[in-house]
Amino acid sequence: MTDLKIYSAQAKAKIAFEPIDANNVRMYVCGPTVYDFAHIGNARPAIVFDMMFRLLKHFYGDDHVTYVRNITDVDDKINARAKLEGRTIEQVTKDTTAQYHKDIDALGVLRPTVEPFATDHIPEMIEIIQSLIDKGNAYAAEGHVLFSVSSMPTYGDFSNRNIEDMLAGARVDVAAYKRDEMDFVLWKPSNEGIPAWDSPWGAGRPGWHIECSAMSKKHLGDTFDIHGGGLDLIFPHHQNEVAQSCCANGTTFMAKYWMHNEFLNVEGEKMSKSLGNFLTISDARKQYPAESLRLMMLMTHYRKTINWSKDAASEAIALLNKWHDKVENIGDVTEDDISADFIKALSDDLNTPKAISILHQLDGNQLKASAQFMGLLMESKASFTKFKPASAEIDEATILKLIATRQEAKRNKDWALADKIRDDLLAQSVLIKDGAEGANWEYKK
Ligand code: AMP
Ligand code: ZN
Questions:
Q1: With a 6 A CB cut-off, is 33 part of the ligand 1 pocket?
Q2: pTM over cut 0.85
Q3: 45, 248, 263, 360: which has the fewest C-beta neighbours closer than 10 Å?
Q4: Ligand 1 mutation pick, 42, 77, 93, max ligand atoms within 8 A of CB
Q5: How many A from CA of 135 to the centre of ligand 1?
Q6: Would the CB of 229 count as within 6 Å of ligand 1?
């Protein structure tokens, strides 16, 4: 038994985590739809559930946790992007997936145990859809297959939504072939130029929700421990995953625990592509050291909104500078060095801000091991402080040359020139720090 507790929206309380099988603790997280660069809002679930993955491995052992995070590589947004750019769909999904990996690897996000692609699971989706039809939970109409919401008396319970709320969401696409406005698509026909797979209902492609039901069943089984994703996925996506999986598998639940991260906002609005208020991870990494973006994200509890600001990033940079100074001369550390209080904080519904407040009190091996458990202090102090923000134009070689000239001026007691060089560098975002062993420097971020 561990002390791990997870907040349950159903119970409106934190409840003890008891895995279905402690030998194989299983977590599924809805991954990105690969049509464009991921923004720093998208990085939030990647980082939050990476922390959960690390914690589960700590408690149950590396070989006893299976983490599945999928790639959605079939979607109308992908088709539209390929058409717009005159590229093939495969090029768009391949390049976007590679960029996603580059971005979140840099943020210290560990690769999941399995990263399934939706398009590799079409037969599994067809099988689930067929079984839903056989059980009377779905029907085919005009090349579509729809899930019949009225066939499941408990539909809506999971997301705690009433019929009016759900209808408001469903009304966007009322089609003649739907028996009930709320019925949702499991399979749809594809027009010319759009990817299509053969199926008993004609050539077509899957709906979004069925992908996750198929990939989680294949890699984790009919039921599993934790299902995660952003708050916006509760309805309709997760509600519909639950409906499909429970009805097809004949289970009363899909995942035992559901965790939803809050949004990352900009000036009070959710960072999103459609609002155009987004900063891509790729651009953010050019301006801020990746570790500081990760820390900034973990400074807020996953169930609270993050307000993105340059100040929040600067605060994270200042903290990391301090910690890098403290562990500069510490050698290799082991899991045994991790602070017990720090793990205790994380065990309390992944209380990362509390865990960070404990890091403030630590030194030496404990600080390094605990910070590294969070995916921080992984790079050397030198590479962290010498990070060159995109906005800084002056390069390291020029800085070193100017510092040498300044040392020479100081030796010649030409204080005016020495000060001028220091001020000129500061004007170019370079901070000189005079110390016992000569001058050190860093880019001001
Ligand atoms: P999408 O590519 O929009 O399906 O989003 C991928 C993941 O990122 C989902 O889990 C979303 O809930 C999550 N997400 C999208 N925007 C934000 C945001 N601004 N803040 C936090 N999570 C987000
Ligand atoms: Zn999903």
A1: yes
A2: yes
A3: 360
A4: 42
A5: 33
A6: yes
SS3 sequence, the chain? CCCCEEEECCCCEEEECCCCCCCCEEEEECCCECCCCCEHHHHHHHHHHHHHHHHHHHHHCHHHEEEEECEECCCHHHHHHHHHHCCCHHHHHHHHHHHHHHHHHHCCCCCCCECCEHHHHHHHHHHHHHHHHHCCCEEEECCEEEECHHHCCCCCCCCCCCHHHHHHHHHHHCCCCCCCCCCEEEEEECCCCCCCECCCCCCEEECHHHHHHHHHHHHHCCCEEEEEEEHHHHHHHHHHHHHHHHHHHCCCCCEEEEEEECCEEECCEECCCCCCCCCEHHHHHHHCCHHHHHHHHHCCCCCCCEECCHHHHHHHHHHHHHHHHHHCCCCCCCHHHCCHHHHHHHHECCCHHHHHHHHCCCCHHHHHHHHHHCCCCCCCHHHHHCCCCCCCCCCHHHHHHHHHHHHHHHHCCCHHHHHHHHHHHHHCCEEEEEECCEEEEEECC
Cβ(230) – ligand 1 distance below 6 Å: yes
**30 within ligand 1 shell (Cβ under 6 A):** yes
